[in-house]
Amino acid sequence: MDRVKLKEWIRNNKLTIIVVILFVVSLLIYYSSIFKNSSIENSKMDVLEKEVEKSEEPTEETAKTIIVHISGEVIKPGIIELDYGQRLYEAIEMAGGPTEKADVEQVNLAMILEDQQKVVIPSTDNGAQGNPTIEYSAGGGAAVKININTADKTQLMELPRIGDATAEAIIQYREENQGFKKIEDIKNVPRIGDVTFEGFKDKITCY
């Protein structure tokens, strides 16, 4: 086909040629959009799968175990290893259960325990109202305090200038007076004056 005939053919079929070109361009645009959407969907699925995998992985907090010290009126006082999120009643069970003298009415058995925590289960012999003594180690984020309404003689003797006789006097006083209403009441115990009280007032609680 020479040039003259080609030009004539193009001129006679101009509309057809335009339609074909538009059709081809439309096909290219259509398949390009499908490929693009498919790539976007695949990317979204990859992100979603990664998020699901991440959510299923145990976090540092939920995966760890905690160490607590439980003492007082339990059959086997001592150090106990628990899973994060376990509660006080589970720790008491692992410590052999409460003794016959355990005053569980004063204890929040549903309390979630924390690492480095110490819990002292009170005795019915104390004759005082209040919660169990809850302590933390120096690095546990809370000051160590002894509950003078529930602590036993050994725990009371951990206070500065408190010996065997004074610890017994503290226990006797709280039994005779239905417990300490405020920490300053401990100065009513024989052998405990202002100087002794100032030495341990930041280490005790009566609530």
Automatic annotation (TrEMBL):
GO terms for molecular function: DNA binding. GO terms for cellular component: type II protein secretion system complex. Keywords: Membrane, Transmembrane, Transmembrane helix. This is Competence protein ComEA. Pfam families: HHH_3 (PF12836), SLBB (PF10531). Gene3D superfamilies: AF1531-like domain. One of its GO terms (biological process) is protein secretion by the type II secretion system. The chain crosses the membrane at residues 12-31. Residues 154-173, 184-203 form the Helix-hairpin-helix DNA-binding motif class domain.
